[in-house]
Amino acid sequence: MFKDDYKAAFSKVTASGETHRRILNMTKEHKKRRSVGGWAGKLLIAAVLVSLLAVSASAAAQNWFVTYFSKESEKPLSQGQVEFVEEHTQDISQKQTCNGYTIELKSVLSDDYNAYVVFGITAPEGVYLDRTVKEGYNPAPPVLWTNGCFIEMQDSGASSTWNMRDDGDGLSNTHNLVYLISSNNAAFQNGKTCEIHFENLIAEYENDAYATELEKKYGCEPKLGMITEEEAEKLYPRETLAEGNWDFTITFTKSNVPVVELIDEPVDYVLEFDRPNEHVVQKARITSIKLSPIGAVCTYEAGEDAPNSIGGDIVMKDGTSVYLSGNTVGASGENRSNGMFSIPIALENVDYIQFPDGTKLPMPELPAE
Amino acid sequence: MMNPEQFTRYAESYIDTVFRVAFNYIKSAADAEDITQNVFVKLLKEEKPFESEEHVKRWLIRVAVNECKNMTKARWWRQENYDDYAATLSFDNPAHSDLFYAVMALPKKYRLPIYLHYYEEYSTQEIAEILKIPKNTVCAQLRRGRELLRKSLQEVDANV
Fold this sequence. Notes:
Number of strands of chain B: 0
Oligomer: heterodimer
Largest interface: A-B, 48 and 54 residues
Strand content of chain A: 35-45%
Structural class of chain A: alpha+beta
Shape of chain A: globular
């Protein structure tokens, strides 16, 4: 009975007539194409991660996030930042072991829309996650990949990026992965859950000897778009460390962080973006900006094809600024841009927000505690 | 490159299968359309011979799943709301509509095994081979998925 109902329901799910037509015409229109975007994107992320890994160090701290954010900002956190991190870190210890590799979901720091999530990876003894020991390869640590890191949230889409960082325990076979995840629908509110699934663990190395070869061939450091897909695969060879699935569920309990609404009436804004062969300057209207120490959610009215994110600088009272970017994810059906900071900021130290068109929004006075 | 007549025959038979696999995985009709086209581009370019039509079908499903994984791990990807697409589906029976929404509300790891089992009628062993996961995992996912569906549909009934 269930099978019949299921078939009846899903028989309605079919590809459009246009897709049928395109596919059936492929034999006539087929031209050999190379898919550069996929590997190029991966290569870019890999390259960024390799460079970020150089920042790793060995000190451990009571709250690992404090150490991590200090290293990211390359300076000690302010007292306000430390207090915020310590107060709102949700410690979790969920461990799963598969084929000798243990992944532990350690802790989470989140507001309603954004979350920093730390995973620890422990490889079998003798496996080096902190450096490459193969001759001719870059001595930097391998970049860890998975076949997929799938993030499922309640009623929301996700945008994520991750950093590999030394966990500070001095062991070669352990490392941390820090995920920065943004949702478009307040998916991390207290009581909500988020599932994170990893599939297979893969190490990606950099073949130094081959990089030198490519440098000779191209006359400069090999870059994206310059080398072929085959060359990229040889430059960044991959090795499957462990096959398997590691599944985690987070139920958020400490997401009620301070949030400040920056405007009490709509603010006009000039949005610039590119259409094919056209630079567009369009009027938009910001209707809300909610700023938390972790990120900012901006709601705005704009044309239909306007980009779904608005960047900006959070300018602090000491003149330094934090760029609001990285994880921007637009909400489906409305213009909402959610930006996450690479490190949490202290709200009391914010002077104003400046948007790319020059619009400045001052920070309102914070309520006394 | 595959022989055009063969390609057309496979395309006519399996475009909707590939689309449903992608839609179940990615919950976006627009992305599922893109993935379906990519999968058939790959089929057209495939040079290794297939042993049977069933071999082709499983290959297409596997490639579709891989394409979905690749898409979802790209930094630019974000999950679309599928409500607009769902509104275009004219269900003959309200129970089918409830079932559709209940299935789509399940976590991804349950949706695909359920589709392969109940729609494509693959056994747990076959699903394990297609998805390259242990058979016990498939059994657990089907069992858990059914439990969640039952609970979800009971809540729908209770609210009517």
